[in-house]
Amino acid sequence: MTIRHLKTARSQEARAEDDAKTRAVVEDTLAQIEKGGDAVVRELCIKFDNYDRPTYRLTDDEIADLMVKVTPREMADIKFAQEQVRNFAQAQRDSMLDIEIETMPGVILGHKNIPVQSVGCYVPGGKFPMVASAHMSVATASVAKVPRIIACTPPFKGEPNPAVIAAMHLGGAHEIYVMGGIQAIGAMAIGTETIDPVHMLVGPGNAFVAEAKRQLFGRVGIDLFAGPTETMVIADETVDGELCATDLLGQAEHGYNSPAVLLTNSEKLANDTLAEIDRILQIIPTADTAGKSWEDYGEIIVCDTYDEMLAVADDIASEHVQVMTDRDDWFLEHMTCYGALFLGARTNVANGDKVIGTNHTLPTKKAGRYTGGLWVGKYLKTHSYQKIITDEAATLVGEYGSRLCMLEGFVGHAEQCNIRVRRYGGINVPYGTGAPHREAAE
Q1: Which of 19, 192, 324, 347 minimizes the number of CB atoms within 10 Å of its CB?
Q2: Residue 3, phi then psi, degrees to nearest 5
Q3: Does the structure show a pLDDT above 50 at 441?
Q4: Which cofactors are named for this entry (predicted)?
Q5: How far apart are CA 291 and CA 273, in angstroms?
Q6: The pTM is what?
Q7: How many CB atoms sit inside 10 A of residue 233's CB?
Q8: What angle do CA 379, 177, 167 make, to 5 degrees?
Q9: Is the pLDDT of residue 1 over 60?
């Protein structure tokens, strides 16, 4: 096996240093929010967003005034995208069934899928107004029938972004706040004098937002641990360097630390892609961002075989994996660790980000090894229940339960079983002993 790195990214040690600095800032800020509530949130909004108002929640009239500023074409596009997201989310929801079965005569077991009762949706927007993130978090929560959906987004150029607010409102948000960063995450999860805390946080964000969600996990639920956007292009000579470079830089423009990896078995394609990246960085308006990401976090890896490419891809477990080969479905069948797959040259990650209908909030930093992305099921809790409806079943299960509890030394547990055996089975089990085996008793 020969795997060659034509370009490498910043070391893991350097990235770990950045993470440590972020952790310290977030921990201190969340502590301030818990202690100071609305006053601290306002201070942070003024400091980081340069934005102040008596209350950061938008009124119905303000929402209506902002939506008027969205052009008819923009509104139609937003509605089209939300329809795709809702349709797929509804199909997913319909696949999740409540069940109830009689496992043995008189014993009924089941589960119910119950929505989380409140969710806070974070929609990034300080640098780029992430309209699509409102569809992915708010509209999907609405399909799940979450009773209380609140949404936060930072101001864009000093004001609420009309398109983002429209998408939140159309998606089904019950409360909309114009605030960003750690203060938004902290206010939603911890609560303040004017904001009731939620049960769950969802949505992407920068490193500080992601770290705030990580630190608050347990106090509230979260969708997943989401870091900077990641993209991987798996390609062979069925495509060209321009296509690969375009797909890599298209995601690298998300931020200054967005990993982008080309994985190929063609050294020619690798070199052509490098040349095309240099060319495109001369003309793309977001070159300052995309170029920095590519410089620090871009990688090109050349393998000898498709099996090597598969092994490397599963090890990296990238958030977005664009597959453009002569065997795309082979990768679909065999890949196990990723956020989402985009199969074939006609498909691209931007489709998934904005409009095609799958959710764009996906696992990063290798989390694809143990979780998928945000979907309607993340808003649902599957709760089991059980009931025994006959004396015979209460006696039979109680006898087994009694003996198994005593096997572990739990006398109080055993007595929960024994009292049923006595009452519903008419069997006199001495206190604090395991129920006799029925055949032995006979």
Answers
A1: 19
A2: -115, 120
A3: no
A4: Zn(2+)
A5: 14
A6: 0.91
A7: 28
A8: 65
A9: no
Asked if 78 and 163 touch (Cβ cutoff 8 Å), the reply is yes
SS3 content of the chain, % helix, strand, coil (to 5): 50, 15, 35
Tokens 């509530």 found at: 37
pLDDT above 70 for 439: no
Work out the widest C-alpha separation in the chain, in whole angstroms: 90
> Which own/partner contact pairs does 396-402 have at CB distance under 8 Å and 24+ positions apart?
396/104, 397/107, 398/424, 398/425, 398/435, 399/425, 399/427, 399/435, 399/436, 399/437, 399/438, 402/429, 402/434, 402/435
Distances (CA, A) of 228 to 86, 215, 217, 253: 25, 17, 18, 11
The set of catalytic residues is 319-320
Strands 175-178 and 200-202: unpaired
What is the SS3 assignment for 3? coil
In sequence order, what are the residues at sequence separation of 6 or more whose Cβ sits closer than 8 angstroms to the Cβ of residue 416?
Answer: 401, 405
Whether 123 and 152 have beta carbons less than 8 Å apart is answered as: yes
Q: Are 402 and 428 in contact (CB under 8 A)?
A: no
What string of DSSP letters covers 95-143? H---EEEEEETTEEEEEEEEE-SEEEEE---SSS--HHHHIIIIIHHHH
**pLDDT above 90 (res 128):** no
Q: What is the mean pLDDT of the chain?
A: 95
pLDDT band at 442 (very low <50, low <70, confident <90, very high): very low
Residue 306 Cα distances to 51, 112, 133, 173, 265, angstroms: 52, 43, 34, 45, 7
pLDDT of amino acid 179? 96
Q: What own/partner pairs with CB < 8 Å and gap ≥ 24 does 391-395 have?
A: 391/424, 391/425, 392/105, 392/106, 392/425, 393/104, 393/105, 393/106, 393/107, 394/106, 394/420, 394/421, 394/424, 394/425, 395/420, 395/421, 395/424, 395/425, 395/427
DSSP E strand boundaries for 228-379: 231-235, 260-264, 298-302, 320-324, 340-343
If one counts every other C-beta atom within 10 angstroms of the C-beta of residue 85, the result is 28
Give the angle subtended at the CA of 167 by the CAs of 358 and 171, to the nearest 5°: 65
Contact yes or no for 135/105 (Cβ under 8 A): no
